[in-house]
Amino acid sequence: MLFKTSSIYTTSTKHLLHKKSLMNPAFNLLAKPISSLKVVWRKDPQLDHAIEQDKTYKICSKVVKEVLNEPGQVIPLLYLEKRRERLRLNVKISTFLKNNPGLFDVYKDRIKPKTEPVRFVRVSHRLRNFFEEEKRIVLKNEGWIVSKLCKLLMMAKDKVLSVDKLVHVKREFGFPNDFLVNLVPHYPNYFRLIGPPEEGKSFLELVEWNPEFAKSIIEQRAEDEFRLTGIRMRPNFYYKLPPGFFLRKEMREWVRDWLELDYISPYVDVSHLDQASQEMERRTVGVLHELLSLSLFKRIPVPILGKFSDEYRFSNEFSSVFTRHSGIFYMSLKGGIKTAILREAYKNSELIQRDPLLEIKDKFVQLLEEGWQERQEQLKSQREEVKKDRVLMAMRDGETDEQESRRELEGQEVLDFHEYMAIKWLDLVMMASVPCKEVQNENDLRRQGDFDFVLKQIVGDGVPKSSAHFSVIFKMSSKRGSTIEMLGEALKDGS
Known about the structure:
It contains 22 helices and 11 strands. By secondary structure, the protein is mainly α. Strand 5 (191-194) and strand 6 form a beta hairpin. Helix 16 (358-396) runs antiparallel to helix 17 (402-410). The protein is globular and about 80 Å long. This is PORR domain-containing protein.
């Protein structure tokens, strides 16, 4: 045999179980068929939120991946729009690009010679900088990636996994896109590719067993506890039901007795165990716990786990483990997809211990947030312009209070001195309490007070106060909609 393995179910263990069953009748619950043990599924809003808050990140990642897979990493916007349903985008591609600036550049080119130019999408300069940062993070954590890959192979029954399946789960475990080309060949002491490079016929095989990698997260936790306290702890699962979750008495007793069984490492040989035995259930929970612990987000969609049923000896009903052991796992139904989540890895909806490869996600989210900030600033600027025009139009038509209009306008950023003067001219019109169409010259304003005095108090001596000048301003404002820009232009050119 290529690898050393150890038996985990000895004769003494059998005698111990028999003795316990005689002393404690409740222990006979373990003899009941596992399939008869039912636990009602209960929603956990906090863990559901953990999935929901990563939704935008995952959608953006999908679109980026779609563009990167195109020749030259460019694609006509129209072609990308046709794939919107497959990408699960609920908005048009053009809207997505506006909402997420910084990811892509849009330019015009011809699909074929002598055709009309159409819009193309390509990776932006900032996104290319992110890819360089991603390479740096992967290189820094290459040892951790290698150990993850070894662990996945070491848990498999023949220490072999399909290349296609590994590629399918690379995002779940943080493997780089090119790990089969630029990582696996660099470690011939651990990995060997076998079979022709055809779909379903290529496999990755473990070459050398590393005892350091053969420690599960649970076993490592027990060792760390011993070093810290000097008390040797028995490796076991961390079991805690969420608030408001209760088990029936029969199920509570079964869980209590089940937790008293010896821990079975996911890295030991279990070929001699009966698939329907309690020990195999114990081992299955251990493998699922280890897989989720190795994943980036400590959660994996159940259909993806199901693809490895043969390699990891899962039963056909393995997904029932997630509800049967609700104190260890949670199965979310968010988004219409069953997702297995490791409870102990989360506090409310946040990860407690983050995988070092999540730095890549953080950098990508930072890029997205920079784009969102730019978008918000653009929208804010547009809203201010619209608000400014609306206030000025209302002032012209006498629909707003003069003091309120003054406050709203002076709250805006006025870049030009003449635009500022134009606002003050409008103030004078409003002070006259006369409809704009009735104001033809300063005499109409004098009906409400000393025009010259008011004008000097507001705008000083910098603006000519001739009737001709005022007439120019008024006629232009009436003709062109009374915007600040037009009045400013009138003050610049008035004669």
